């Protein structure tokens, strides 16, 4: 394909500039906050939360100012031109305060999880009218002699109100674009406005008929939902858009270059509303009929990463054995230039994990990494991710401190556990006690999660999204109340490897080599190794570390990994039939936040430093090459990890950019997948660049890095996260 760099640089630069300006405009939230507050105050007599939410949705759709930036080809951005009067400002203040004071019982509360993908295939191919007809059919069948039907009727009414509001919003876009075209004197811009208006002539009420129209409607839905505080992801765009692309190409209505320009526009728009929130898009894998999805659009969506050079969308690849070799080469070429994307997921392992969790075979074929690495079945799920973040090192701290924290607050337990002041007889008894404490930490967190799910079921709603998530209409139930097919909750364990390395250090230093006692080690952790740098370096350098193919550490890693999964299987929440919990091993930015409030740890980590952020070696501890990391983590059944597993590798620019380095990276990715590992992501940036970027951030505004599942600009990150990335091993070979 010849789609890379086909666009003029001036055009690309203009689109990038529009994305930055629109995304960071100081007036972005002004009108939206006012309309939301006004609608909230005006719907105060509505008795049912989902109907109130639907009416607020429509108030936004019917009144939001539609603005289009000249030069962009996809409509839908935050309004900038609204200036509130003193009276409107007072109303905004009162309404916003009322929403805040009302809390989850206000009727405003969204059931969005930020990790859902709508059924775009249905919307694009059948139109909203078919969904509205389905809702009408369900409404007409309501039988008030049945105990649940009144509640179902409320759901259907709310979804109908919101979906009709969305269609009216589209009509307003159509009319506004015609008005802009009528006022425009520049013939090129006038023609672009008219082309954009045509996309809204019938859709989304009617089915889409072409690629441009379909892509616009996808963006229109994402933008519209964002106005409702309901984040929706793009999903498998190369799959559901390809029939429109193929048809237009065959009819001579579209060229590959034109399609690519639209995709670049689409990427730029993602950065306007999501900013650093990773809006996910996945390519490749298979479709619902188990047919490989590797097509021209797959390649365009990958190439657009380099063309735009922006942090959004968060593009990933669902790797299969039949991935075209040239496409994997393209991925590595882009990664080698420091773009941090795409991340690459092992389709076979992810699908196995989903099926083991109860997802049917067809649904398991179409999933996405929802933002970071969390797995979401497309068009049929209401996943809660990172709920909550649990720091396992607090269990170790509890035992070392004999029930007292070594730093900060104590960990939350479902019941107190008495820890004897006597030394433990052996490592196994100590380790068992740590696991017992961890089990109580998990129990407390899962009890909280169960009440959280119940709260969402009773008081949150998302009537618009629910119309486009299966099986909400069939069940007559909001997605947030259990109407979605799959309602997994994914607790996340930042610091898992920190805990494993700490246990390995305790086994060696305390029980095997008897360098110090447990009480002495607890004292070192409590005082942050003050005046004990020699012992700290012993713990860092002389004790086994996970991620180096060392069975003494890896055995602990496997046991604790299996233990966490087993503990989560003991619990269920109230949302739907798939109300189960599944672990995740990434961190977003929480490894930094949790590290700030955790004591120093027996692996030699100092208080305040970030915890481990991924399933791999702790920062700087992968001493046995990247292959050693893979051999360690491959001892774990990673299909358990549908909550999300991130495995980070960092390579030097000189190695990754060389022909030899690129070939090695391609083979390394294949090896990683063959070893049944879950996901791989890369940083290609030299140590000197990172150090200079920390010292001189003004010179590196666009330097991208992989954090702990997602990409961000290095200068956006908190100092402890910057330091954590700098500490990661920079490999110069595989």
Could you describe the 3D structure shown?
- It is a single chain.
- The chain is an alpha/beta fold.
- Among the domains are: 9-278, no CATH class; 385-609, no CATH class.
- Helices cover 51% and strands 6% of the residues.
- It contains 29 helices and 11 strands.
- The strands form 4 sheets. Strands 1-2-3-9-8 form a 5-stranded mixed beta sheet. Strands 4-5 form a two-stranded antiparallel sheet. A two-stranded parallel ribbon has the order 6-7.
- The longest helix has 35 residues, at 149-183.
- The model is unreliable at 1-5 (pLDDT under 50).
Concise summary:
With 734 residues, this protein is an alpha/beta fold. Among the domains are: 9-278, no CATH class; 385-609, no CATH class.
């Amino acid at each position: 394909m010849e789609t890379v760099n086909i666009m003029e640089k001036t055009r690309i630069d203009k689109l990038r500039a529009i994305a930055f300006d629109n995304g960071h405009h100081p007036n972005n939230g002004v009108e939206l906050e006012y309309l939301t507050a006004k609608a909230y105050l005006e719907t105060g007599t509505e008795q049912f939360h989902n109907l109130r939410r639907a009416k607020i949705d429509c108030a936004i759709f019917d009144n939001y100012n539609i603005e289009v930036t000249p030069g962009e080809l996809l409509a839908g951005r935050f309004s900038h031109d609204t200036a509130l009067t003193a009276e409107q400002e007072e109303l905004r203040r009162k309404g916003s305060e009322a929403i805040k004071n009302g809390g989850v019982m206000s009727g405003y509360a969204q059931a969005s999880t930020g990790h859902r993908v709508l059924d775009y295939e249905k919307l694009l191919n059948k139109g909203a009218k078919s969904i509205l007809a389905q809702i009408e059919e369900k409404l007409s069948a309501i039988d008030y002699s049945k105990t649940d039907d009144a509640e179902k009727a409320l759901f259907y009414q709310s979804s109908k109100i919101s979906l009709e509001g969305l269609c009216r919003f589209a009509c307003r876009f159509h009319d506004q674009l015609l008005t802009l075209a009528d006022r425009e004197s520049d013939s090129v811009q006038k023609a672009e406005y008219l082309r954009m208006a045509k996309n809204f002539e019938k859709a989304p009420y009617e089915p889409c008929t072409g690629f441009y129209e379909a892509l616009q409607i996808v963006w229109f839905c994402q933008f519209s939902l964002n106005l409702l505080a309901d984040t929706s992801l793009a999903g498998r765009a190369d799959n559901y858009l390809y029939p429109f692309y193929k048809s237009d190409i065959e009819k001579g209505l579209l060229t590959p270059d034109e399609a690519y320009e639209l995709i670049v526009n689409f990427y730029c728009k993602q950065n306007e509303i999501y900013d650093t929130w990773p809006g996910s898009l996945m390519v490749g894998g298979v479709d619902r009929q188990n047919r490989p999805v590797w097509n021209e659009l797959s390649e365009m969506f990958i190439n657009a990463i380099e063309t735009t050079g922006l942090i959004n969308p968060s593009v990933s690849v669902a790797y299969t054995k039949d991935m075209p070799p040239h496409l994997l080469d393209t991925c590595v070429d882009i990664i080698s230039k420091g773009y941090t994307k795409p991340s690459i997921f092992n389709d076979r392992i992810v699908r196995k994990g989903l099926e083991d969790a109860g997802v049917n075979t067809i649904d398991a074929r179409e999933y996405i990494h929802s933002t970071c690495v969390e797995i979401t079945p497309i068009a049929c799920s209401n996943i809660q991710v990172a709920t909550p973040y649990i720091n396992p090192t607090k269990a170790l701290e509890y035992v070392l401190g004999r029930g007292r924290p070594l730093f900060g607050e104590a960990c939350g337990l479902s019941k107190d556990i008495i820890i004897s002041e006597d030394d433990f007889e052996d490592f196994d008894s100590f380790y068992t006690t740590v696991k017992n404490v961890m089990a109580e930490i998990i129990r407390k967190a899962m009890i909280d999660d169960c009440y959280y799910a119940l709260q969402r079921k009773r008081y949150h709603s998302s009537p618009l999204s629910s119309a486009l998530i299966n099986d909400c209409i069939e069940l007559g139930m909001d997605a947030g109340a259990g109407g979605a097919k799959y309602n997994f909750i994914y607790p996340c364990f930042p610091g898992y490897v920190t805990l494993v390395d700490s246990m390995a250090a305790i086994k060696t230093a305390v029980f095997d080599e008897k360098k110090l006692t447990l009480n002495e080690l607890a004292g070192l952790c409590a005082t942050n190794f003050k005046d004990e740098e020699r012992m700290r370096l012993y713990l860092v350098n002389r004790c086994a570390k996970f991620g180096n193919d060392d069975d003494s550490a890896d055995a602990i890693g496997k046991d604790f990994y299996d233990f966490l999964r087993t503990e989560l299987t003991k619990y269920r929440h109230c949302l739907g039939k798939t109300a189960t919990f599944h672990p995740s091993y990434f961190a977003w930015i929480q490894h930094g936040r949790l590290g700030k409030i955790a004591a120093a740890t027996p692996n030699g980590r100092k208080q305040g430093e970030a915890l481990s952020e991924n399933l791999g070696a702790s920062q700087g501890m992968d001493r046995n090459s990247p292959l050693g990391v893979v051999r360690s983590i491959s001892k774990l059944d990673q299909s358990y990890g549908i909550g999300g597993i991130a495995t980070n590798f960092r390579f030097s620019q000189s190695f990754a950019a060389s022909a030899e380095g690129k070939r090695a990276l391609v083979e390394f990715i294949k090896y990683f997948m063959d070893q049944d590992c879950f996901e791989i992501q890369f940083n290609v940036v030299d140590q000197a660049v990172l150090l200079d970027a920390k010292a001189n951030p003004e010179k590196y505004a666009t330097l991208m890095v992989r954090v702990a599942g997602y990409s961000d600009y290095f200068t956006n990150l908190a100092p402890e996260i910057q330091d954590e990335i700098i500490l990661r091993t920079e490999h110069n070979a595989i």
